[in-house]
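Dear support,

Our group has been running a series of protein-ligand predictions, and this particular one with 3-phosphoglyceric acid is the one our PI (initials K.S.) wants archived with full inputs and outputs. We had some confusion internally about which version of the output was final, so please treat the block below as the authoritative record. The input we submitted was:
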Amino acid sequence: MKKILIATTKPFAPEAIKKIKKILSKANSEYNLELLENYTDRQNLLKAVADANALIVRSDKVDADVFEAAPKLQVVVRGGAGYDNVDLDSATKKGVVVMNTPGQNSNAVAELAIGLALFGLREKFSGKSGGEMRGRTLGLHGFGYVARNVFRIARAFGMKVIVYTRYSKGAAAAIGLKVTNSLEQLYEKSDIVSIHVPARGEHIKSVSYDVLKYLKDGAVVVNTARKEVINEPDLVRIMEEKPGIKYMSDITPDCEDVFQEKFEGRYFFTPKKAGAQTIEANINAGVAAVQQIVAFFENGDTTYQVNKK
Ligand code: 3PG
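Confirmed final output from the archive:
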């Protein structure tokens, strides 16, 4: 009997848990599912992983302490796309396979990105005269699953869409999407920039003054990715220099107090990261996570492993 622990400070919808239980009841092997939801004390997580063979998390921090406390752990699945919350080196050292569930919550995040763009353009529905999406240029910084969904929705709004991507040029060109030659060019040409790069490697703090200085005064920057991809002091600097720029984010920056003090009416931060917080996304990511765990235990399937050597 394998123990699968679902540890989520921000739980999956009950419908997703129901489906997960159904999948496990139909699996060939026997599984014991344990739920640790809404936990506030990390000690609870460290206790619960002690006899877990598999762990499903969302943005929950899975660091060296967790791996240390979990001698039986074989696989961790991050139900979602970004796995910057999992210490891959520690996992690899302990021989634990780490996976994500790419694409499963991308439509939900994309819909939020569009919503934030619209909310910003329309002056947060304050009654102040705003702008329309139609005819405006949307720049996609990155072209993964979320950005592709944003592109699909933006086209229906009648927007012009451009993209900067290093790794998905072929995919963008294949659907007739214009790829800019540089990130600077993307920021210069866009009325709205939507950020869709992971908090890894060269993307960390890649949205710096060198790029932000090209923004039009009046541009809206939408961030449904991670705060780590933005150089916050640089963002503050450009917002001081160009008083029309707005920042709409699903992630509250570390310097929230500066925004409160200086940029009244020009920013919005969701109270709790909400991009993937839909029933559909919870079902997609939760079900994929448990299916991947069953496939791992029963067939040794590591298709979505992110810590391959
Ligand atoms: C992701 O990386 O999949 C999204 O940012 C959603 O994260 P969440 O599961 O913490 O809401």
